[in-house]
Design a protein that fits this description.
heterodimer; A: 214 residues; mainly alpha; two-stranded antiparallel ribbon; 2% strand; B: 559 residues; three-stranded antiparallel β-sheet; 15 helices; globular; disordered C terminus
């Protein structure tokens, strides 16, 4: 994926590059199903226990979630700007933008880790350390299960994304990409934006709960 | 016309088998043909492991007292049989072996789009397979292959998490292979190979891959949640902790019903190839066959609830899923009618692949029609969880898929290995498969009708006659499945050399040498014809790159 050499099954590099992008789109389709079923089952319980989920969601840290939302949206911007820089053959800008993208991703993970620590301090970790607050029953624990499973899986996906961007960074600093060869940037950029999109949905599921109305 | 094949012009290029002989050249190959062989070896091992478990199950059920195994052992036995057969044989069977080998050849490509991903898929499969073998050696588990909640997370004995991990990793292999097939079909077709010139096998693999891509991630997530729930004791599906076990069933069957189509669609593709070639007649209703494959793939996503009629779903949703289950039978029926219509006024030769294919059509029809009985709400109340269900899905998966797999294996054996198999032995095996299969599973319809529940290690004494019949049939079936292993193995060393096109078939895979060179075609073929241009009047045929040939000599000549 990271070498510009034309593989034997392709007739030209355009075909090779477009095929790589199609491959990533198909992979994203499977990822949509993967996260989709998780969010769907979350919704089932959300509808089944609206009051309990409202109470549980109120204990999440919306400020940290919002900061992370901002970090990831910005990182998607720098990622597409990196792709544009490669197309315009701006090598220095390309390296810089990839570096910023990876740094924003790492910052997200840092904030997330901090948030997990605060969740633990608030006794919101199911089974391990969970204290029911007044009015809370079993279903609030289910909310927190989904919280940890969904954000944990998202963090794993983001870590993979950061690793890929760092590989791109090394290759870019060696001058591997040019306007004629930017397929890996396009492909990993797609993945990065997808991981960003997943956070949109997780944010909407987790943080606003219990904060509307009186 | 010219008898010069594309691959035959000039010196015959070295075949993919003769490129290199080291073990590393196999284990690290990126050639789709070699990876197909790797998959073939892996799944054959699992076929016989799963088959061995089946043999033990039938031995246990010879006697109503169930004295051979303890009940706990019996539970683990059928669980192992199910898990191994579903995920480690049936799902990869045709796509990962024949599909991997043939899809690039049939679309006229030099390889799949992502050869490294293809090898990675096999590595994942083998890794998950080693997990599965480890799972068997440490004693398996007793949940059944369905992992039903809350039993699997809170009450089951055995190694549920190990099994879930094996299936989870296996799923990534499925996804990787399917992704490769979809992208290759879209992007790597030879010049002139339009969508409606694709062989039906490619259409079938394409439709299957779409189902794999959209269904498998759901299973991965579901099993991940089961493992998390069992490991940490949280209550995602456990009703005591506020969870909903029916939600688990919805999620599981959202994958596992489409998984049935993952198993049967490739088989339909194989049979379409075999029926036309040995009837020397174009397929009846080619486009209808394409649309039928795609509609089965789509409608197959909306029938999962028929596994849950007795689980406590609402009447409204039960009626919906019942109706959808009837509707999905329509495209399947279209396919059966088209295969039989293809045979009309044709020149049938009963070579072994054709015998397997005809066996498939008969067994699939029985399996499909009994599926309609089960889709009927009122009948399903009585037949749910009985041997009627067991017989029904074995007719589809074993009578259907395994027959087609063996048929395809014989048909493409000369292409894959460059050797002819002994025809008479193969015909015996094909007939024995059909006889043994019916012997084994027809009595199970009656057992189910009489009320024998599935998954029990014992049964009422008055049902023994049918059970003995079924077990006797299983022993015939075992011979029928072991036979090809022997004579196909023999043919590798002593078989006659096969020409590029021993059956006189029209697909591009027959327009290169047998076995094909590493690059598949010395130069990229240009497609000008529809597939299956056979002429039933004189048996002549026109290949997809537009070369006309006289009738080939089939059957006896190859013995």
């Amino acid at each position: 994926m990271f070498s510009g050499r034309l593989q034997e099954q392709y007739t030209d590099s355009t075909q090779q590059s477009e095929t790589a992008q199609l491959g990533m789109w198909v992979f994203i389709a499977t990822e949509v199903m993967f996260f989709g079923v998780l969010i769907f089952s979350y919704m089932i319980y959300r509808v089944a226990y609206p009051e309990q989920f409202r109470l549980a969601g109120h204990d999440s840290f919306i400020l940290l979630g919002s900061i992370n939302q901002a970090l990831l949206i910005t990182s998607s911007l720098t990622m597409v700007l990196a792709v544009r820089a490669a197309k315009a053959d701006q090598q220095r800008a390309l390296v810089l933008l990839l570096g910023v993208t990876a740094a924003l991703g790492l910052a997200f993970l840092g904030v997330k880790g901090f948030e997990y620590a605060k969740d633990a301090a608030a006794h919101s970790v199911p089974v391990v350390d969970y204290i029911f607050k007044p009015g809370e029953h079993r279903p609030t624990e289910i909310f927190w299960c989904f919280y940890f499973v969904a954000t944990g899986l998202h963090a794993i996906h983001l870590s993979v994304g950061i690793a890929l961007v760092l590989i791109l960074l090394v290759r870019a600093s060696q001058g591997a990409f040019s306007p004629g060869y930017d397929a890996p940037l396009e492909v990993i950029g797609l993945y990065w934006s997808f991981v960003d999109c997943v956070w949109f949905f997780l944010f909407a599921c987790i943080y606003p709960l219990g904060r509307a109305g009186p | 016309m010219s008898a010069v094949d594309i691959g035959m012009a000039g010196a015959v290029p070295r075949s993919y088998l003769g490129e290199e002989y080291t073990l590393a050249s196999w284990l690290f190959t990126r050639d789709h043909k070699r990876i197909a062989i790797l998959f073939f070896v892996s799944i054959t091992v699992f076929f016989f492991i799963g088959g061995f478990a089946a043999a033990l199950i039938r031995l246990q059920l010879l006697n109503p007292a169930g004295t051979l195994f303890q009940p706990e052992v019996y539970n683990r036995l059928f669980t192992m049989h199910g898990i191994v057969m579903v995920w480690f044989f049936l799902i990869p069977s045709i796509p990962a072996t024949l599909g991997n080998f043939l899809l690039p050849l049939q679309i006229g490509a030099r390889d799949l789009a992502f050869p490294r991903l293809n090898l990675f898929s096999w590595s994942l499969f083998t890794f998950s397979g080693l997990w599965a073998i480890y799972f068997i050696f440490i004693g398996g588990n007793d949940t059944g292959w369905t992992f039903y909640e809350p039993y699997s997370s809170n009450f089951a004995n055995g190694h549920v998490i190990v099994a879930a991990v094996a299936v989870f990793i296996n799923g990534f292999s499925t996804i990787a292979t399917a992704l490769n097939f979809v992208v290759s079909t879209h992007r790597l077709r030879a010049p002139g190979m339009t969508w409606f010139r694709l062989p039906l096998f490619v259409w079938a693999i394409y439709a299957t891959s779409i189902v794999m891509l959209l269904a498998t991630p759901v299973l991965a997530m579901t099993l991940a949640l089961v493992a998390i729930e069992r490991f940490w004791g949280v209550g995602i599906f456990n009703p005591v902790l506020g969870g909903d076990p029916i939600l688990f069933q919805h999620m599981f069957w959202f994958y596992s019903h489409p998984a049935v189509y993952i198993m049967i669609l490739p088989a339909m593709g194989v049979v379409s190839e075999l029926v036309t070639c040995f009837a020397r007649c174009p397929i009846f209703g080619y486009k209808g066959m394409c649309y039928a494959l795609i509609s089965i793939a789509i409608i197959g996503f909306f029938v999962w609830g028929h596994h849950m009629f007795t689980a406590g779903i609402s009447l409204t949703s039960a009626v919906f899923f019942s109706l959808m289950s009837f509707i999905v039978a329509v495209p399947s029926a279209i396919k059966v009618f088209n295969w039989t219509a293809t045979l009309h006024n044709s020149r049938i030769s009963f070579d072994a692949p054709m015998l397997y294919a005809l066996g498939f059509v008969g067994l699939f029809t029985i399996g499909g029609l009994t599926g309609l009985i089960l889709a009927t709400l009122s009948a399903d109340i009585h037949l749910q969880d009985t041997y009627f269900v067991i017989a029904h899905f074995h007719f589809i998966m074993v009578g259907g898929t395994v027959s087609a797999y063996f048929g395809g294996l014989h048909y493409w054996w000369p292409k894959i290995t460059g050797k002819r198999y002994p025809e008479m032995w193969a015909r015996y095996a094909a007939i024995l498969t059909f006889v043994g299969f019916n012997f084994t599973f027809l009595p199970q319809f009656i057992l189910g009708y009489l009320g024998m529940p599935r998954r029990y290690y014992t049964y009422a004494p008055d049902l023994q006659t049918w059970n003995v019949l079924s077990s006797a049939g299983a022993s015939i079936l075992a011979v029928a499945y072991a036979l090809p292993l022997i004579y196909l193995g023999w043919s590798l060393f002593h078989g006659k050399r096969a020409g590029p096109n021993p059956w006189g078939a029209t697909g591009l895979e027959w327009r290169t040498s047998s076995p094909p060179p590493k690059q598949n075609f010395p130069r990229t073929p240009v497609v000008t014809e529809l597939p299956y241009r056979y002429d039933p009047r004189d048996g002549s045929y026109t290949t997809q790159d537009g070369v006309h040939f006289a009738e080939p000599t089939l059957g006896e000549a190859s013995v």
